[in-house]
Amino acid sequence: MKTIIAGNFKANLTRKQVMAYTQGLEKFLESQCADSIQNHKLQVNIFPSHTALLGNTFAYFHIGTQNGYFATSGGFTGEIGLLQLQEFGINRILIGHSERRNLLGEDSECIAKKFRFYAEAGFEIYYCIGEDLHTRQKGEGALKDFLHTQLANIDVSYSKLIVAYEPIWAIGTGVSASMEQIEQTHSILAQMTQDPLLYGGSVNADNAGEILKIPNVNGVLVGSASLEVDSFAKIIQVAL
Ligand code: 13P
After folding, report:
1. Ligand 1 centroid vs 233 CA: distance in angstroms?
2. How many angstroms separate the alpha carbon of residue 10 from the centre of ligand 1?
3. Which H/E stretch holds residue 19?
4. What is the share, in percent, of the chain residues with pLDDT greater than 70?
5. Is residue 175 predicted with pLDDT exceeding 90?
6. Is residue 84 over pLDDT 90?
7. Is 164 helix (H, G, I), strand (E, B) or coil?
8. What is the CATH number of the domain that holds 210?
9. Residue 164 phi, psi (nearest 5)
10. How confident is the model at residue 1 (pLDDT cuts 50, 70, 90)?
11. Packing angle between helix 15-32 and helix 229-239, nearest 10 degrees?
12. What's the domain range around 212?
């Protein structure tokens, strides 16, 4: 299975910065990773904010969207619709990120609607799941139930689905889950779905190599450490 390295820029980087970033990333991938990408061993994606979406026309990486409303267009203030994403050739989306669930109040019904809509549109869907600290502290049974409920909300047999496990307590904290915790959780997830599984939560160039060696880890979803092209490139390099 190929390794997927994805960068979620969240509400960071301006359009101008993303334009410079993409030039640097394309150059790096062309010189260092062309074979792996052409042989489908490696896939690189970035998810900039909506104001910084660029045409999805790069040779060595894909541009996806951090969000999309479950409509082609219409009266949905502050949202972005399918037609607007299609204008950029975007066909990848993050759905269910904990920041959207918790800060923006997206509930399981809204997430399920987004999933169905973008699956119908043929998007590659990066479905984010992950428990809070309280659930983790309750033990393995509670963790399993929690992850099972999040997966039960969507069709895990969708062929273009990638599941990103991002424990909430490891996001943006600088402290990733331990290798044992990642191994344990990914093994639980591998019993629930056959989809590629990414880990996310304080991934950086120093821990990515070890994380990518864990069984049932098929890639990483990177936040802060993807914001500078050099740092993101180092993570990609360890995946080679
Ligand atoms: P950090 O890598 O900054 O912890 O963010 C992870 C994340 O939320 C990616 O979607």
Report:
1. 16
2. 9
3. helix 15-32
4. 100
5. no
6. yes
7. strand
8. 3.20.20.70
9. -110, 115
10. confident
11. 30
12. 3-238
Stated pTM of the model: 0.97
Q: Categorise residue 81: left if φ over 0, alpha if ψ from -120 to 50, beta otherwise.
A: beta
| Ligand 1 atom closest to the CA of 47, numbered from 1 | 10
- The residue whose CA has the least distance to atom 7 of ligand 1 is 223
Scan for tokens 């895990």, then name that residue: 156
pLDDT surpasses 90 at 3: yes
Q: Residue 180 to residues 186, 187, 210, 213, 215: CA-CA distances in angstroms?
A: 10, 11, 11, 12, 11
Q: For the segment 13-57, what is each residue's pLDDT rounded down to a tens digit?
A: 999 999 999 999 999 999 999 999 999 999 999 999 999 999 999
Tell me, yes or no, if 97 is annotated catalytic: yes
Q: Count up the domains in the chain and report the number.
A: 1
What is the model's pLDDT at position 24?
98
Look at residues 33, 131, 48, 44 and name the one whose alpha carbon lies nearest to residue 85: 48
Catalytic residue flag (residue 40): no
**Ligand 1 centre distance from Cα of residue 176 (Å):** 10
